[in-house]
Amino acid sequence: MATAKPPPLPPRSRPQNARAGRRRWRNAVLLVLVVLAVVVAVFSDEIMGRAKAGAAYGARVTCSCRYLGGRSLEDCRKDFVPGMSMVMLSDDPEKKAVTARVPLLSRETATMQPGAGCVLARWED
After folding, report:
1. Per the confidence metrics, is the pTM higher than 0.85?
2. What is the pLDDT of residue 123?
3. Strands (DSSP E) along the chain, which ranges?
């Protein structure tokens, strides 16, 4: 009786495929970072301008709503125009001030001034 030898095992190619997959993933991440850097470099003035205007708008409108209209901070958010979901609000009742932030980009504060309404802090360019 003859016994057949089992067929030889195929060479292990898994580590090579894993390395290729990791290399592709790394290249894709690098490409996304380069594209993002180019977009930021080209549009940085526009992005910063919009962030500053959005934060100023948010602070001013919310301060007026809160201290002239007597509404809650959460209720005042309803007055925002579409696209202002990134603006974060904080309230300082002692100073009667509202600060609006666009994370990592801009922060503006509006304070209730008797006889003048809500006034933004001076901008420094």
Report:
1. no
2. 65
3. 88-92, 97-102, 106-113, 117-120
Residue for token pair 């195929």: 10
Long-range contacts of 86-94 (CB under 8 A, 24+ apart): 86/54, 87/54, 87/55, 87/58, 89/58, 89/59, 89/62, 91/66
Mean pLDDT on 6-34: 77
Residue 7 tokens, joined = 């067929």
Cα separation, 45 vs 122, whole angstroms = 20
Residue 97 region, left (φ>0) first, then alpha (ψ -120 to 50), else beta?
beta
Spatial CA neighbour of 88 closest among 111, 39, 38, 54: 54
